[in-house]
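note to self — DONT lose this again. spent like an hour looking for the file last time. sequence + predicted structure for the chain T wanted, 135 res
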Amino acid sequence: LGRWVTFQRSRKAIGKMNVVREERLREAGFIFAVEQNNWEEMFQLLLKFKEREGHCCVPAIHEENGRNLGMWSVRQRAKKREGKLDPTRKKLLLENDFVWSLQNSQRAKQKEGKFDPTRKKLLLENYVWSLQNSN
């Protein structure tokens, strides 16, 4: 099945897929652009996080609906730094106040006196735990 799926995606990518076949596959729920679909699912989880938390400052260690939203956020930040983030995706993230630098965001909150000490302690404990268990 895996080879068949790969073959269908490659035929579509090179423009050699029959229009009727493509339509039937789409109707059946076939996903041609897996990476795009995954990004959109994670973006929806980010919006859910924002609605609940009131911001898009996702910590590196955070799961949303069993998906690692924290690491997804880390990858978006890295892609932006490297100049590899798709402009459309960057625009969507900017429009939703995505926080590009956790360090700067946390410093700003501390200066304003808005940084929750309990949250600071939890983030520090998670960081120390990850350092201790990285071997």
